[in-house]
Amino acid sequence: MKTVREDFENAKNVKEIFEVVKDAVRLSLNESRAGIDLGLIDLGNGHGQLLSAYYPVGSNIIVLNKTPLKRVTETRPDLMKPYVFVVLLHEYIHSLGYLDENTVRKLTHGITKSIFNGSTITEMAKDMTKFFPLLLYPGGHPANGKMHVIELEQPDYIG
């Protein structure tokens, strides 16, 4: 039987990473939620500021910011999967009804620590700001407000 860590290593795109996120939460918190969609939109970034993703409370979508995905592809492509995992994990926990940001951060860090202890994923979950030089365009980056919804039933890409 495969482990969550092995499934993560074998994940090839955002959708597969999201499936691993859902498995990790199901195993760690014994909770799940069906019917969540993923959207991609270029929200840009401000100088030293980043919104990686968001979950509109009461909705059925998690929206990923394409800007840091593009930036990490340019600077450190090896960080793409860990970054996407942490961001989706954080927002998926929000979608389960955990709205307090500190609680969600603690749960995100705890889940990553139990599965990936000592890895980049755990470090990102603990303090994403350490990775800002690799995720942010220096001086900021403009937004482009067109959203792409990822079809979760069909193959897609990461980035």
Overview of this protein structure:
By secondary structure, the chain is of the alpha+beta class. The chain contains 7 helices and 4 strands. The chain has a 4-stranded mixed beta sheet with strand order 2-3-1-4. Strand 2 (53-54) and strand 3 (61-65) form a beta hairpin. 34% of the residues are buried. The model has no long low-confidence stretch (mean pLDDT 91).
What portion of residues is helical? 40-55%
Distance between the ends: 29 Å
* Major sheet: 4 strands, mixed
Structural class: alpha+beta
- How much strand content do the residues show? 5-15%
Q: Order of SSEs, N→C?
A: HHEEEHHHHHE
The total strand number stands at 4
Rg over CA atoms: 15 Å
- Average pLDDT metric: 91
Poorly predicted residue ranges: none
Summary tags:
four-stranded mixed β-sheet, 7 helices, alpha+beta, 48% helix, 159 residues
Short description:
By secondary structure, the protein is an alpha+beta fold. The protein is built from seven helices and four strands; from the N terminus they run ααβββαααααβ. 48% of the residues lie in helices and 13% in strands.
How is the topology of this model organized?
Blueprint: H1 4-10, H2 14-29, E1 37-42, E2 53-54, E3 61-65, H3 66-75, H4 80-95, H5 101-116, H6 120-126, H7 132-135, E4 144-150
Parallel strand pairs: 1-3
Antiparallel strand pairs: 1-4, 2-3
